[in-house]
Amino acid sequence: MPVEKIIESVHPETPGSASQVEQLKGAEQKIEKISTHPAEKLREIIKPITKTSSKPTRSSAANSWQEKRAVVIDNILAEGLNDIFLKMNASEQKAFKLKGEETVTKINELLSHTKVKVNKIIALIRDWLKLIPGINKFFLEQETKIKADKIIKIKNKF
After folding, report:
1. Residue 151's pLDDT band (cuts 50, 70, 90)
2. Which of 22, 84, 97, 139 qualifies as a FRET site for 54, CA 20 to 30 Å off?
């Protein structure tokens, strides 16, 4: 209210003292800051939300256990494949890593459902392991089954 009184007491047409003009300018700037500040805050808050995801957001607790489960799934899938991964060339490593990350997210999503579809998990792991050049089909099936069994066991933990 005191800001409005200062503005009302000094008219722009009538010249006033320098201190009154400075007070008027300061008051106008404060009013502008106060009036635009919440809108700018709202825009800053809304922009990151609309850019990051179009899906409804989940609570941080839900994200944390899903992230932990994703890390565990990633560790299970990576078990015993370090030597094989290092023998690949750079382009094969990149493709293998990208497909592995996709597989982890899809398996994590499948485990979130009430009914776990083991065949889909096995198919995802098998398709990912097929990227290994010169892989033995028996090794492929054995590794797929072992990794799928370990992943199914962690479903109840998270």
Report:
1. very high
2. 97
